[in-house]
Amino acid sequence: MWQEEILLGVAGICGGAVVAVALAAFIIELGILPRFAGITHTADHIFLYENCLMAGSFLGNLLYIYHLQISFGKPFVGITGLFFGIFLGSWIIALVEVVNVFAVMARRMGLKKGIGWIVLCIAVGKIMGSLFQFFIV
Predict the structure, then answer these.
(1) What is the 3-state secondary structure of 71-133?
(2) For 54-74, b where at least 16 C-beta lie within 10 A, e where not — what string?
(3) Per residue in 63-112, pLDDT tens?
(4) What is the pTM of this model?
(5) How far is CA 61 from CA 16, 58, 69, 82, 101, in A?
(6) Secondary structure class of 68 (helix, strand, coil)
(7) How far apart are CA 65 and CA 39, in angstroms?
(8) CA-CA distances (angstroms) from residue 70 to 74, 77, 85?
């Protein structure tokens, strides 16, 4: 009985490691991580970014799969949510810059002015959608 649990635990850890490495490889292959490091002028720490990306993905999978709970109180939840939002927003903007979404969109729509307002509206829409999901749904 306990051998089966050990085997399942090892399989889960290996699966989490594979997902973490795949996510990191995807983000690195798209050029988002080097672009993010270039924007922040911290390119000399790129290996640290890659290691933190893989470790965070792996630990996130462990927390999700095994339903582990870390309780530091409501202020910690708010601070963590703020950092998660900053992190996700930074990655989205880096991805948008790498793929040149706004340049293609502006050319197709014939926009010459107002792209800053479009980006701001997208960000506000994302925030409002997240707040709606968290507090109403």
Answers:
(1) CCCHHHHHHHHHHHHHHHHHHHHHHHHHHCHHHHHHHHHCCCCCHHHHHHHHHHHHHHHHHHH
(2) beebbeebeeeeeeeeeeeee
(3) 777 787 777 888 888 888 888 887 777 777 766 666 676 677 777 777 77
(4) 0.53
(5) 6, 5, 13, 20, 30
(6) coil
(7) 34
(8) 12, 10, 19
